[in-house]
Amino acid sequence: MRTIHRRNTGFSLIEVLVTLVVVAIGLLGLAKMQAAAISNTQVSRVRSLIALQTESLASALHGNRTYWAAGVAPATFSATGTTITDSTGVLTGTTDCTSSTCDNRQLAAYDVRQWVTNLSAHFPSYSATVNCSNTAGTPVSCNINVSWTEKYVAINRSTAASAAAQTSTQTLTLYVEP
């Protein structure tokens, strides 16, 4: 008896289908990694811009030391959107210091208003609170707290199902001695 051996020439259809499935799964994984990388880049961008904005207020406090370091500044003020809440009413002024001469109080109000306007333009859901210690005999120190909401890509199916799991509230605190 003679045995006939057939040589396989080429791939079988099953091998091709398995290869296509493996490549497709790899490409889906690559797409997910790309989405996560883009999301992380966006989060880093937002955090950097918040830090820069917070530093700009710190620079304004340093630039107007005769007001902020004199112990006469409000002990606390807050901002959300373009609204500034100040119990003394000093920082809610509307003088434009670019076209007229301002005293130290007006300059402080102008600086805070500019800061709030810039934050609101880039981060509509932010909130900020500035607390200053105005204790006589000690150097004035301020804590600038900025909170905002971040969005990010879900890691797995259970977090993707929950919209709340795709956002988180972050806070940055900066300590300043004007």
Can you give keywords for this protein?
178 residues; 5 strands; 5-stranded antiparallel β-sheet; alpha+beta; rod-shaped; 4 helices
What can you see in these coordinates?
By secondary structure, this protein is an alpha+beta fold. The protein has one domain (13-176). Helix content is 44%, strand content 21%. The chain contains 4 helices and 5 strands. The chain has helices spanning 13-63, 65-68, 104-122, 157-161; strands spanning 76-80, 83-86, 127-133, 141-151, 167-176. A 5-stranded antiparallel sheet has the order 2-1-3-4-5, with helices on one face. A hairpin with a 2-residue loop joins strand 1 and strand 2. Helix 1 (13-63) runs antiparallel to helix 3 (104-122). The longest helix has 51 residues, at 13-63. The radius of gyration is 29 Å and the shape is rod-shaped. It starts with 12 loop residues before the first helix and ends with a strand.
The fraction of residues assigned to DSSP E strands is 15-25%
What's the average pLDDT?
A: 88
Strand order of the largest sheet: 2-1-3-4-5
Tally of discrete structural domains: 1
H/E element sequence: HHEEHEEHE
Largest sheet: 5 strands, antiparallel
Number of helices: 4
Low-pLDDT segments, ≥5 res: none
Helix content: 40-55%
Radius of gyration: 29 Å
Could you give the distance between the termini? 102 Å
Q: How would the global form be characterised?
A: rod-shaped
- Helix/strand/pairing class, anyone? alpha+beta
Which quaternary structure do these chains form? single chain
**What is the number of beta strands?**
5
